[in-house]
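Researcher: I'd like a structural prediction for the single chain below. Treat it as a standalone chain; there are no partners to consider.
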Amino acid sequence: MHYAEITGWGKCVPPAILSNDDLSTFLETSDEWITTRTGIKERRICHCNFSDMAIVAAKHALAAADLDPIQIDLILLGSLTNDSLCPNTASVVQDALGARNSAAIDINTACTGFLYGLHIGTNLIRTGAHNKILVIGGEFISHYMNWSLRDVAVLFGDACGAVVIEAAERPTGLLSARIGCEAEANNAIQITNLGSAYSRLSEDFLYNDWHFEGQEVFRRAVKSMARACNAALTDCKLSVQDISLVIPHQANKRILDALATRLRVDTNRVFVNLHKYGNTSAGTIPVALTEALEEGRIQPGDYLLLTSFGAGLTWGAAVVCWGERATPLAVSEATLPPCDQTALEILGPHIQRYAELR
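Model: Treating it as a single chain, here is the predicted structure.
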């Protein structure tokens, strides 16, 4: 049986930082209120297109694997905030990279998009259908935010990450995954006025709104991620004590702490970068994975436990055995287009628009 080793990794975080103090200039909130409830101190705001972030992250991942884009035979892009529905954004990335031999598929399972993509890509390699796959996860969530809603506006940010997976004979990469969906609670996280189910005749059609049931999401997130983690570990005949690092979806510090308690894992073995970026949805795990490698927290042969949940309510977990290399083979100089605005300046028109609706 083929395995699917992770051979390249990369991230893209926009330069514009929106701090908690910045949010307090137009919302009834404070750094103390946000930090104690979420663990978030700041988040990034994108000044260009989502595909620009995906392309930069992909270039870094390809360089780390020392691959020419022409060698990639499939691109899987997990996101709910794509440039457009038609054409799909994976095709935009394919064209920009020059990956002419690849198929291109968008995956929308919200925050679990990267984990679902890694699961799908790994199994396609195992069947022999593909050999070298680029898996991307990221979000331009600020574009769809209702900036008058304090309880959700403080949570999210923009970022993107990517990995390359390649066919391998040794047992590395994703060894086991469990994914699923608690669809009976699919309206617990909902962005309204986005999609064909919403009437174009409505006077507020041009404005996105959010429905977010925080307590329901918290309860289901902790339960579903813990259950998926234990099932994936059992599949591999491993225990949480065999895991070197847990890399969970970065949604809320209280959720991360509750998950660590339920899994009975020390918090020093749970990777957290939530304070820097907030919840970047499908971008959280690949960005965190890249930063864990940059910080030397992943070594060859380590077992990693990845887990996520998202709107739907989708959930998943995966056990990954890291390969023989934890350093990139090459480095890309790819960056986003220059940004000459602060985060507040970028968001100014959006903030004003939603303020007028209150």
